[in-house]
Give the backbone structure.
Amino acid sequence: MINLLFIISLIVYLLFSLLELRKDLHIIQLNSYMTGRYFKWVRYNILNKIRIKRLLPILAFIPLYLNLFYLFLLCWISSYLFLLSTIEKVHEKKRLVFTNRAIRLYTTSALLSIAILFVIYSKFRVSNELILPFIFLVLLNIFSPIGMLISNIIVSPLEKMINHWYFNDAKKKVKQFNNLTVIGITGSFGKTSTKYILNKILSDRYNTLMTPESYNTPMGITKVIRTQLKPIHEIFIAEMGAKKKGDIKELCNLVSPKIGILTAIGEQHLETFGSINNIISTKNELIESLPDEGIAFLNRDNNYIKELPQRKNIKYIYYGIDSENLNFYARNIQYTPIGTDFMVCDDKGNQFKFKSKLLGKHNVYNILAAASVANELGMDLLSISHAIKSLEPVPHRLELKTYCPNVILIDDAYNSNPIGFNIALDVLKEMNGERKILVTPGMIELGDKHYDINKAVGVRASQFCDYIILIGTRQTKPIQDGLKIENYSKDKIYITNTFTDANRYLQDIVEDGDVILFENDLPDNYSE
């Protein structure tokens, strides 16, 4: 009988462990399976993730001191059945996707857990020395992210081999299509919106394929090429993301772009890049990788881009709003409750009035980038303007919505960077409304400048926001300090650790005529 109870105690433990491993798998997926980034997350967050109730099985050891082995095992089983029945269902902003890689990693973690349980069963099922192995199991469960970290290290060599094969297979496929024009888009911000806008314009004339959503990593783009790219496609638009030097060069090696768009360079992902100079050189890898006779489209209003050295044997086309010597530029920009109106001009003297549902000066830049590429590929301004007029906002990027009757919501929740945040604040300030309400967790991955940049946001928002709702007590401390400097009323600040609670508070205070800005929505690995 005691042997059966022993087996059941290990089974219920394993079931609970497998559910906890799923949470760890989700976090490491959000960290792009990068061991260094996940280790950093574990180091900063593991103690915050400990729940008191997970220590409940320790109470089962009390009967063990009295040599009541049956009662110990029954208490152990009961405690884990209780934990299984009370597991909280967590709302995932970005759901765990069980890709082949995720399945391999999860299987490895599960097998490690099973192996440990098998060893304990083999060595201790006929022993009375159960305290140490079962305490080890409790600790293993509490610190399960460390087990996921070890599993990731174990499978990394295999993943590198698999990724290398897929990468080379996709690279060969791109080269097979001689009539395919590949357009690479990179930048610290603006690349996803520019991609959507460009695809919308060009699809009126060409068979196009773009990388969906934020598929901007080597494996993301590889998957798109291997599963979606067909001989009928004339243009492939690839968004290129980067977290460290060499990332853009690797993507260029994969897709061989003939056209490159550099939207902007700014202080985003400083935490992983280390310095602004590393960001500049990494983004410029796209331009450096263009073939002879390639075409580079650059935002000349961006000071970092303006200073980039020019290559010989490629064509440069500059777009912007405020600079001189532009090939494409915008004038007479006007923001309305339904979007933006502006005049698009080129260096040949052509001009045409554009109307767009998109908000913000940064979207004017995105439209200019896309329009200049489309024009170079043979489309006139009239055709381009028609496509822009029917363009719907990219989801969660300054997207105008109705929060409730007579209340406007500006949804800019996808991500945030210093320039994008300030542009969103500009839009909020200029919108007609009774009161302006900001809801934000602040910005992340800004390295040493994290505090100063977020503090400056607090100072700026205090000047015209009637209410400010901050998500994350620790995360938003710099914004809180900025508000404090400006003597912003404490009654107009609400701080919470969950978006659900923030939304509940918002519903309590909102009134007809209000304008709300949702700025940034941190992924689950940054939630407090």
Remarks:
- The first helix runs from residue 2 to 30.
- The radius of gyration is 27 Å.
- The chain has three domains: 2-157, 177-389, 399-526.
- Residues 46 and 143 are 7 Å apart (CA to CA).
